[in-house]
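Duplicate of #3305? Posting structure anyway:
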């Protein structure tokens, strides 16, 4: 099949997965016209660089976005024809490239929560708060700022619904929680109030009753990560380098999406729900995980290829 015909199939398959490809289609059709004029039968890094050099001057972000579009198309093509070579991710410089997320295993998340519960403090509040705080982010995918801003009243115990009132860009949303999560939060607030000797407005607090701060949360997470071997001790940088609290949110999103593919669910339909749950402004921000996590990309490409072959029958 010609590259143009392959592109038609590729766009049809990805649209069936829920992607908005208006920009990608324009870029890829320009690229295919260039490839046809050059007599190219297969895509590789050299072809992309020659095409990129022929385009009007553009910033690094625009050029990198073009690379991403061509790269995904080439990856799809290479799944059925190994003569195609996807241009490498770092072929062009881009200051806006997002860091690849660290995806925790279930064992690592369990170790984080267990080690956090052992964090030392005068009354035991630090371990109680941090273990619950990290656990809630792991099972809901909340942003750190959203979890820190929660008040006790934001949890409706009767319905099991958590109100996230301080989402990104001021957006609010409601999250129905699993009963086991609600029970854990009830246990936490009961013990928290006992240690404080009073009820608390903020959900997550320090030993003195003040709301847990972002600095304190990150410092505690760094300490826990070093204790279980996820980070190396850093002499000059107190927190060191390694997986972050925010990667718990990434892990929640990725594991959710992997389950869709393994259970045969329709990613296009489920993606809208996950985008709403995570509080993303656009589904494109959620689709990013497919490109950022190799396992997800493989599952998505396998499904897209299967749908493509079935459409040809």
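Output from current build:
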């Amino acid at each position: 099949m010609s590259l143009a015909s392959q592109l038609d199939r590729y766009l049809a398959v990805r649209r069936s997965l829920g992607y908005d490809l208006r920009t990608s289609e324009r870029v890829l059709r320009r690229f295919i016209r260039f490839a046809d004029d050059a007599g190219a039968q297969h895509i590789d890094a050299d072809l992309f660089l020659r095409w990129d050099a022929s385009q009007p001057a553009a910033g690094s972000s625009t050029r990198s976005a073009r690379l991403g579009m061509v790269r995904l198309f080439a990856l799809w093509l290479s799944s059925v024809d190994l003569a195609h070579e996807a241009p490498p991710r770092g072929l062009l410089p881009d200051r806006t490239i997002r860091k690849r997320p660290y995806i925790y295993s279930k064992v690592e998340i369990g170790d984080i929560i267990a080690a956090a519960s052992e964090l030392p403090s005068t009354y035991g509040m630090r371990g109680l708060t941090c273990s619950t705080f990290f656990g809630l982010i792991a099972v809901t995918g909340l942003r750190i700022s959203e979890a820190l801003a929660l008040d006790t009243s934001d949890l409706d115990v009767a319905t099991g619904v958590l109100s996230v009132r301080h989402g990104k860009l001021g957006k609010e949303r409601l999250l129905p929680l699993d009963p086991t999560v609600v029970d854990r939060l009830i246990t936490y607030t009961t013990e928290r109030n006992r240690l404080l000797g009073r009820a608390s407005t903020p959900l997550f607090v320090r030993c003195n009753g003040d709301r847990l701060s972002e600095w304190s949360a990150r410092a505690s997470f760094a300490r826990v990560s070093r204790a279980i071997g996820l980070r190396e001790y850093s002499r000059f940088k107190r927190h060191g380098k390694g997986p972050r609290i925010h990667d718990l949110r990434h892990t929640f999103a990725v594991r959710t999406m992997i389950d869709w593919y393994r259970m045969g669910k329709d990613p296009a339909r489920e993606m809208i729900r996950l985008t709403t749950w995570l509080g993303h402004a656009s589904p494109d921000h959620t689709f990013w995980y497919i490109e950022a996590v190799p396992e997800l990309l493989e599952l998505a490409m396998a499904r897209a290829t299967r749908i493509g072959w079935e459409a040809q029958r």
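Confirmed duplicate; merging threads. Strands lie at 155-156, 161-164, 173-176. The radius of gyration is 23 Å.
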